[in-house]
Amino acid sequence: MEHLVIIGNGIAGITTARNVRKMSDMKITVISAETEYFFSRTALMYIFMGHMKFEHTKPYEDWFWKKNKINLVYGKVVNVNTDSNLVCLQDGQCITYDKLVVATGSVSNKFGWPGQDLPGVQGLYSYQDLELLEENVKYTNHAVIIGGGLIGIELAEMLHTRGIIVTFVIRENLYWDNILPQEDAALVSRHILEHGIGLKSATNLKEILAGNNGRVCAITTDKGEKIECQFVGLTPGVSPNISLIKKTKIETNRGVLVNEYFETNIPNVYAAGDCVEIKATEEGERNRFEQLWYTGKMHGEVLAKTICGKRTKYERGIWFNSAKFLDLEYQTYGFVSNVKREGENNFYWVHNSGKHSINMVFKTDTRELVGINVFGIRMRQAVFENWIREKRTIEYILENLGEANFDPEFFKKYEEEIIAKFNEENPGSGLKLKTKKFNIKKFITKISV
Amino acid sequence: MKQLQIHPAKVYTHNPSLDVIKKIGLSFVGIGVLGFLVSLTNITKSNPFLFFLLSFGLVTLGALIFFLPQIKESPSGVKNNNIFFNSFTSRQAGGWTLGIIITGFYVLLYWFPETLTNWVRLVDPLSYWLRNKAADRWFLYGSFYTLAVLVMGTRMLIKKRHNKYQILRTLSVMFFQLGFAFLIPALLLRLNQPEHYFTYFWPLKYDYLFPYTVDSLIKSGGLGYFMVFWGIIMSFIATPVLSYFFGKRWYCSWVCGCGGLAETAGDPFRQLSDKSLKAWKIERWMIYSVLVFIVVTTVLVWLNFIYHGSLLGSLSSGFSKTYGFLIGAVFSGVIGVGFYPIMGNRVWCRFGCPMAAILGILQKKKSKFRITTNGSQCISCGNCSTYCEMGIDVRSYAQRQENIVRASCVGCGICAEVCPRGVLKLENDSADIRFNRNIS
Q1: ipTM above 0.85, yes or no
Q2: Which string of b and e fits B312-332 if b means at least 16 CB within 10 Å?
């Protein structure tokens, strides 16, 4: 029987294992040094905030793995030998594979700042990071977070719930404005400040200082400021975790290099999830890193097919992502650039509470929708995917916006207000709300035509 | 580079005076609890109304003073912070203590009512004012129950002030409890009519369709006829029709008194329901067994009635007494509420309620209701499953991109609320395309 060995029990590794099991009865072993059972990394914050316990973050009950004959090994891989098809663990045990999947995830970035390895300084990625955080907050009244991404805001919220004063230090002018357009970044920044979290923008970390107890006691910035703190969260992004793979014959660059089939340079060795660097196929394109929960899941689904003999190319569908900034929900469909690109225009509406907004980017000539950012209103993914695929114009979409609404029943609807704003900005367009409600039968007929 | 120039309208910083207000509120609750303890003695005889204020009054006032500052503490949103660190809400010492106290109260109420005589006296003035007669233990129980729904409902309104579905739903259960399960029955008594609860139907209120109830209602005259008619219409016509359009929730989380208590007083314990597959299996066995039990019992008592007790005399009364004791008292009361802090707030609704069983079958087989999963946006975090009071593993469906159509779902909407990615939505749409296996 063929033996598939997967290093890493995160979403990419586990999705691969589960999907292979659906299609094949090959022997499957998943190895992890992080936790015995698969858990949802995205839920680490909720454990810390007391919303859930660790056991709640496990998407499958413990009996699931045995029942589905997915063999779990709790141990650290120290060596991979691709000549003899061996994966060796710290305890000396070696496992022979026929096919190998590397799904080792990411590590938090550190950019060589003085003091970055002091006690009280850490990132947030793994279960072990969470345990370390529990230890570190015992010493903390004031925390500083460096780097304004999605993990940074989560860490800020987590610490805030424990009554810790949080100062968020970001390089950008506004939170995440390297990804979000100005209006959106301003909206989130305002939301952060409203919660009583400090935001120091356009500021770079210079140095992390130690106190008499050997732990972090302050940071200094490029503005010449010194901020006293007992904790520093380093969240300037993540990089592929390739420390293990670097020592092998598997080709790496910044990540494990794979083609669009998640194949590495070694036959029968694959990689998926955060740790991969997908090689560009076209001239002028750059290698891709995809370090999201959603992409990890998609990688695993595609790779499982290839492993089971149905070689399948990875094609990203219409882009989507979502996040929650404190109380503010965010969804994005299609592509919204932080700075307006040539040939594109945008329509922006924000509710006067500053808690709901949409930002729609469309092509100036054809008026077809390129992407949308939406805050504080839930939208149906299937409807927007369909509109983008069908190259619907912004006018069409606005008139049918009710169809995409996914807010709970009885919630205030904003479609009329949104259209009124558009009509005001575009005299003569005279748009009227046509579809007010989603209807599944109509939708299915529409997409199957 | 220029510095940030963004000023929110309001900044929520830690406000120590709010903590002081909350502590004052808690102190009032504490003194009120002492008031209740003192009121167990004959001292209440001297001035029942005074002791009513010192017990019921202070606890209510204190609780409201404790809940209200939340509005000023932080912006509205999903705030489940520290729930699993709190001894009362995470099945630790506090939770067990509370469970024993509530369970103990039910045991006293059902089987040792004489121990509560002085508490009954506390609500005498209220009883005379409302019903023009002396209070009894059931009026005491009704007062406790209604007050719990109103006070904890207010807490719910504050906690969920960002969510209109939750606000309306909470107002609805508060309204039905206060109006239909407390004031109207009292008013009926005052008018010398049968005490009747228009929001409870067979088989939950099983004896409403028992022959002796029907008989005595009909004998009581015009309004009695209407009560029988109403009960039959609600049980056999309105239930399937409303369940078709709205799912089980029209009753379980909007109208029902048991549901009302669970959704208000029980809200702090919803995360304690067991989500395992094993619990689901037990649930299905138990709830349908109870349904069969009450159907058989009802048939037997009617047969016995028709044959004037000549045929099944002791058998049917045996069935009905056993059901009344085991299910009516022990399960729905003692375990159903007493075990809130141990097994979650819907123990009775999930494992025992025969009305929920019928509504569940209707919801599963023929209804427009479902919880829609929004594409592939689930991050498997588990908030939905954790906060499902019915112990449904919502995540297992959401992460497969399947809609949730489950007999037990009461449509409380909390899964959709706590989802950090906007993946879940309760809705009524075409009944024949519900499972979302057609579109990805």
Answers
A1: yes
A2: beeebeebbeebeeebbbbbb
